TrEMBL record:
Its EC number(s): 2.5.1.32, 5.5.1.19
Residues spanning the membrane: 33-50, 80-97, 129-149, 156-174, 180-200
InterPro entries the record matches: Isoprenoid_synthase_dom_sf, Lycopene_cyclase_dom, Squ/phyt_synthse, Squalene/phytoene_synthase_CS, Trans_IPPS_bact-type, Trans_IPPS_HH
Keywords assigned: Carotenoid biosynthesis, Isomerase, Membrane, Multifunctional enzyme, Transferase, Transmembrane, Transmembrane helix
Keyword Isomerase: yes
Name of the protein described by the UniProt record: Bifunctional lycopene cyclase/phytoene synthase
Family: In the N-terminal section; belongs to the lycopene beta-cyclase family.
Gene3D superfamilies: Farnesyl Diphosphate Synthase (1.10.600.10)
The reaction(s) this protein catalyses: gamma-carotene = all-trans-beta-carotene; all-trans-lycopene = gamma-carotene; 2 (2E,6E,10E)-geranylgeranyl diphosphate = 15-cis-phytoene + 2 diphosphate
Amino acid sequence: MGYDYALVHLKYTIPPALALSILYRPLLTRLDVYKICFLITIAVVSTLPWDSYLIRHRIWTYPPDVIIGPTILQIPLEEVFFFVIQTYNTTLLYLMFNKPTLHSIYLRAERGPNHPEGPLNQQWKHYRWGGQVLLFFTLLAAYAFTSVLGRKDATYMSLIIWWAAPFLLLLWSLGYQFLVGLPFTNTILPIALPTVYLWIVDCIALRRGTWVIENGTKLGIHLTWFGLSELEIEEAVFFLVTNMLIVFGQVAFDNALAVINTFSSFGYAPPALPSPLLLVQALLKPASEYDQGRIDGLREAVNRLRQKSRSFYLASGAFEGKLRIYLIMLYSFCRVADDLIDEASSLDESQKWLNKLEEYLDRSCDEKESDDSITAYIRESFPKWAHSALLMLPTKELTAQPLYDLLRGFEMDLVFCSAKSDPFPIACEADLQLYSARVAGTVAQMCLELVFALLPSHENEAARRSLIQAGSDMGVALQYVNISRDIEVDAQLGRVYLPTDWLKEMSLTPKQVIQNPRGPKIDALRRRLLDKAFAIYEESKGAIERLPQQAKGPMRVAVESYMEIGRVLREGHFQFHRGRATVPKIRRLRVAWQTLLRS
Ligand SMILES: CC(C)=CCC/C(C)=C/CC/C(C)=C/CC/C(C)=C/[C@@H]1[C@@H](COP(=O)(O)OP(=O)(O)O)[C@]1(C)CC/C=C(\C)CC/C=C(\C)CCC=C(C)C
């Protein structure tokens, strides 16, 4: 009996597992835990018989003085633990690299030459066949070396290939599109980092004799990269393919989840934890049935969010599944509606967009109106860049009133342009409160309607209404921060949201603010508005803790990362991004991390 193998774990596999767990802890969800357990189970069950065979046939051995003693199918317990911890570490690394990614946008519809919408993406067929042929010939070569040519020294390598290649073939055939489409950072990095690390650990273990690959069944080729002179080629391949299997397995899981969450038309009701059967069903759904328009629309919405709002882009990564998709669609709609009205070349044009948006809402909220006629209206009335945002707004999960109120809020902005803004529309604090409730309280209300539509909650109807009211107040607080930040930007557009009677107390007029939006008086007014924002925030933030478990942490991130702009403004040292004060990226990440840690 000895502790050498156990020491390898204590020194080299457990410390990274602890470090990754601490780092990922705030982001860890129930779904992640499910994924980790799912993969560990598959890894252990699929490796045990193979590893036991290797040990029983003395292809690799463990000197009795390096292991503690207990075995499963003759495999030392330390070795079984290796499968668990390697899968755990690689899975966590994958989860970390994939957290910011919305996987749905990497799905691809495969259309054949006779598809009604025309052929598309024929190259996918080549990728699928390419991978399958490569893996098939690798299997064949392994067989030829050992069985036909009788090369005993290729035994270990062939056994690795015969064990891993069928799994890789299966996973490739099911998810090749997704694997090829995902950014390298999502797939190659979580394979490469643990592989190189385990190569180093393996060299150390082989050098110390913790495990031994018997002569006669190995090729005897050593890799000499990075000074890894003890690294047998079989070991290098083994660690590479095992990490590939773990990552391919995760990719298949995410592929299935993306199908379940993206296409409501397939009729999957996304459960919190999808069963293996549902995952397989989703994976087997032919890619030719995917709605490419929906995938493209979602991609546009994600790009819009990424380009226009750093805070909400960061926060969106903390949400999961269908809720994340719907929130991104909601953002896209709000942004597009705001831009159509704000960026119009004249007051008349703004009014025209407002009327068209109202007509769009009338039709969308009318149960008698067919989807086709709404789609036709959008296509004939709005510019192409706005289509997907309008087509994909999840109106069925929303009530009509906040959508109409949002338009009323945008309408208030138009008053700034009319009659040379005299008098200015925000005369007193009540006007500011009303405006903010319309443009931001409504947004919060809709976010929460989506939360309650998609997640299970113990709160009754009355409690939900009070939560939505608290959320709406929080929206007002966020809008006050937004206004405090944008005093200069708004002044350039001829807008002053600081109430006229506040200005009067400082012997200022809105026109003077437009001419010079800086100075100690403006700083004092900004502080006053921020104080109001933080007072509302303090009153409403407790309500977040009563939201469904899966929404609590992410909502906190959304609110806190925006309120952090207010904190930075209060402190007075901020960076500028496109003329606006922003929170440095590292500080935003720290806030998000600490906020989630409180869960
Ligand atoms: C991840 C996530 C929550 C995403 C969705 C957020 C969403 C739908 C935002 C809509 C944004 C938008 C374009 C609205 C149009 C009107 C407007 C301009 C409102 C201002 C937002 C700022 O957006 P902007 O794109 O300008 O962002 P940048 O400053 O450039 O980064 C607003 C300040 C309003 C935003 C308000 C909310 C998102 C509501 C937040 C409150 C909750 C989610 C409720 C919290 C719950 C409780 C129970 C208290």
